[in-house]
Write a structure and sequence with these properties.
Largest sheet: 6 strands, antiparallel
Shape: globular
Strand content: 15-25%
CATH topology of the largest domain: Ribosomal Protein S5, domain 2
Structural class: alpha+beta
Number of helices: 10
CATH class of the largest domain: Alpha Beta
Order of helices and strands: EEHEHHHEEEHHHHHEEHEE
Radius of gyration: 20 Å
Oligomer: single chain
Number of strands: 10
């Protein structure tokens, strides 16, 4: 009997917003949060040979190849990877990291590859090369603060390298984007932009650290919505200024800036660009206040999702084939 015969491994994770990096060079550090939606769901089941949907081959095939090489096998793992749900790509939701981690961990679970999560994230999924906020979020949920200390990187527990904080379930966050999105930043273009950047000045780095710890995390712990919004917006703006030379300002282009300006005009206090955008986040103290504001959303701005924080880690279910 092959490993994985007779059962499926099902993994479900949320999405990730990134409030910004602490620096533009290694170790980067940063702050972000996990969302309940959009969900990423990966199902791995037994097959005669490795199979995955055509639209995900560029993501899944390299992971299967790394797992084959890691085990010293001749063939790719005999399993079928399905992706019933996934977050939209290139929208600031961390979809690539969540999908890669779920695929790598799902195959490892199904094929009885017993390795530490560090190996799954770095070696098999090929993530955590720059920011590891999405990896910590995948395992812990909540608001994530990554200090940038890579000396003792440990994804499994809260330690000196990161902190996680739960947020109230009634707080809501909307993710918006301009309907006329400019070209997304990823892959080669992202590497080229980082190569043009200078390290953050020490004073700016200290200010970002202070905003993260004494602003965002402190407000999250005492559930102070107004303070959380203020510190999140300030942190996002200051971090964004580190990238002004390659994205045309604090935010990535005129279209994203238009969304930011609309939120400001509506009196929303907690807003910012997630990663390179074009996704823009906006915090609301309740679903009702969110819906009231979004009712006047102009035609040139799209609502991607209105959701809550995912305070839990990714879920894993192993089911017999008859279940």
């Amino acid at each position: 009997m092959r490993c994985g015969d007779g059962f499926t491994a099902r993994i479900c994770s949320g999405s990730r917003l990134h409030f910004g990096l602490l620096d533009t060079v290694h170790p980067f550090g940063g702050v972000g949060v996990m969302l309940e939606d959009p969900l990423t769901e990966v199902v791995v089941s037994t097959a005669e040979k490795f199979q995955c949907p055509e639209e995900f081959r560029l993501r899944c095939d390299p992971i299967a190849e790394r797992i084959r090489d890691f085990r010293g096998d001749k063939d790719l793992p005999p399993c079928r990877v399905e992706v019933p749900r996934h977050a939209p790509s290139h929208c600031g939701l961390g979809s690539g990291t969540q999908l890669s981690l779920a695929v790598a961990e799902g195959i490892c679970r199904h094929q009885a590859v017993n390795v530490e999560f560090d190996t799954i994230a770095n070696s098999l999924a090929g993530r955590a090369k720059r920011s590891v906020v999405g990896c910590y979020g995948y395992l812990h949920g909540g608001v994530i603060y990554e200090t940038g200390n890579r000396e003792a990187l440990d994804f499994q527990a809260n330690n000196g390298t990161h902190q996680t904080v739960r947020l109230p379930s009634q707080w809501h966050v909307a993710v918006l984007k301009p309907v006329d999105c400019e070209e997304s930043v990823s892959g080669r273009s992202e590497r080229e932009k980082f190569a043009e950047l200078s390290p953050a000045p020490k004073q700016v780095r200290r200010e970002l650290d202070n905003l993260a710890v004494n602003g965002i995390l402190a407000a999250a712990k005492c559930r102070d919505f107004d303070a959380f919004c203020e510190s999140t917006r300030s942190y996002n703006m200051l971090s964004g200024q580190l990238f002004a030379s390659v994205q045309g300002g604090t935010y990535n282009g005129t279209h994203v800036t238009r969304v930011i300006d609309w939120l400001h005009d509506q009196g929303v206090s907690g807003y910012g660009q997630s990663s390179w955008g074009p996704g823009v986040f906006a915090w609301f103290e309740s679903e009702q206040t969110a819906e009231t504001c979004l009712a006047s959303l102009p035609a040139d701005i799209e609502l991607v999702v209105l959701t809550t924080v995912r305070n839990a880690p990714r879920s894993i279910r192993v089911l017999d084939c008859c279940q």
